[in-house]
Design a protein that fits this description.
The protein is mainly alpha-helical. Helices cover 81% and strands 0% of the residues. It has ten helices and no strands. The longest helix has 66 residues.
Length: 298
C-alpha cells in the first residue's frame, strides 16, 4: 500500500515538472515560412506572366478589365492555398516529435506551428514588399494629381488658357493686366495680342465662379472691337461662351470625381479580397500542419 502511494506521488511530481524545451520547433517554422515565401513568389511571377499574355493593346482583343480583376483574385487565392498548404505540411513533418503528450495537445501544437508559418511568412513578406507598397501608393498619388491636372487642363482648354499651377486664383498676371488695362480697347489692341489677357480673365472667372462687372464690360468692348459687332451681340457671345466653359468645367469635375470613386471602390474591393485570401492561407497552413504532424508521428 505504501509502495503504491509512493508511485502515485512520484508520478504527480513528474507530471508537474516544467519541460526545459520549448514546444515550438522554430527550425520547422522558419523552414515552412521560407518555403511559403518562395512558392508565393514563384506563383505570383507566373500569374503576372499569364496576365500579360491575356492582355492586348488592340481594341476588342484579349481579356477585359473585369475578367483580369476576377482572374487576379482567383490566382491570389490559388497562390495562398498552394503555398501555405505546402509550407504547413512541411513544417508539420519537420517539427520535433513530442512524447508523453495528449493527442489533443499535439493537434493544438501542430495547428499553432502552421499558424506561425503563415504569420512569419506574412510579416517577412510585408517587410520585403514595403518598398513596393510605397511605390504603389506614390504612383496612386501621382495618378490622382495627373487626373486633377487633366481636369484642370480640360477647363482651361475650353477657356482658351494655359493656366499655370492648377488655375491659381491669385495669379499676379491677372492683377497685372487689370493694373495696366487701358480704358479704350483700341489702345489695348494696338499694344499687341490680347488673347492671353482674355484667357486669364475667363480662367479666373471659372476659378472663382463669377465674372466681375468691370471684367465683363471690358470684355464686351474688346469683343465688339475685335469681332466687328455691336456691344449687344458681344454681350450675347460672351454669355454663351461663359456658359459653355462652365458646363465643360462641371463635366470635367464630374468625370474626375467618377474616376476617383471608381479607383477607390476597386482598391477597397481588392483589399477585402486580399484580406479574405490571407485568412484562407492561415487556415490552410494550420490544417496542413496537422496533417503533416500526424504523418510525422506514425
Amino acid at each position: 500500500m505504501q509502495n503504491d502511494q509512493s508511485v502515485t506521488s512520484y508520478a504527480r511530481d513528474v507530471s508537474g515538472v516544467e519541460s526545459p524545451h520549448s514546444a515550438v520547433s522554430w527550425g520547422a517554422v522558419i523552414a515552412g515560412a521560407v518555403i511559403a515565401s518562395a512558392v508565393s513568389a514563384m506563383l505570383v511571377i507566373g500569374g503576372t506572366g499569364l496576365g500579360l499574355v491575356s492582355m492586348s493593346p488592340w481594341r476588342d482583343e484579349g481579356a477585359s478589365g473585369p475578367a483580369l480583376a476576377v482572374g487576379s483574385i482567383i490566382w491570389l487565392f490559388f497562390t495562398h492555398i498552394i503555398a501555405y498548404g505546402i509550407a504547413g505540411y512541411t513544417a508539420g513533418r519537420l517539427r520535433t516529435k513530442w512524447t508523453d503528450v495528449h493527442d489533443d495537445e499535439i493537434y493544438f501544437r501542430d495547428t499553432a506551428h502552421g499558424f506561425l508559418v503563415w504569420a512569419l511568412s506574412a510579416v517577412v513578406g510585408l517587410i520585403l514588399l514595403g518598398t513596393t507598397v510605397a511605390s504603389v501608393v506614390s504612383g496612386t498619388a501621382k495618378a490622382g494629381a495627373t487626373l486633377a491636372g487633366a481636369s484642370a487642363g480640360a477647363v482651361t482648354a475650353t477657356a482658351g488658357q494655359s493656366m499655370q499651377e492648377s488655375a491659381d486664383r491669385l495669379s499676379l498676371d491677372y492683377f497685372t493686366d487689370a493694373l495696366l488695362r487701358p480704358n479704350d480697347p483700341l489702345v489695348a489692341t494696338a499694344q499687341g495680342d490680347v488673347r492671353q489677357e482674355t484667357s486669364r480673365i475667363l480662367g479666373r472667372s471659372l476659378a472663382t465662379g463669377e465674372l466681375s462687372e468691370t471684367d465683363q464690360d471690358y470684355l464686351v468692348k474688346l469683343i465688339a472691337q475685335r469681332a466687328g459687332v455691336d456691344e449687344s451681340t458681344a454681350q450675347q457671345r460672351l454669355t454663351q461662351i461663359k456658359e459653355q466653359a462652365e458646363q465643360t468645367a462641371r463635366e470635367a469635375e464630374q468625370t474626375a470625381r467618377e474616376a476617383a470613386d471608381a479607383t477607390r471602390k476597386a482598391a477597397a474591393g481588392f483589399s477585402l479580397w486580399a484580406f479574405a485570401s490571407l485568412l484562407v492561407g492561415a487556415f490552410v497552413a494550420s490544417f496542413c500542419a496537422t496533417i503533416g504532424g500526424r504523418a510525422r508521428d506514425r
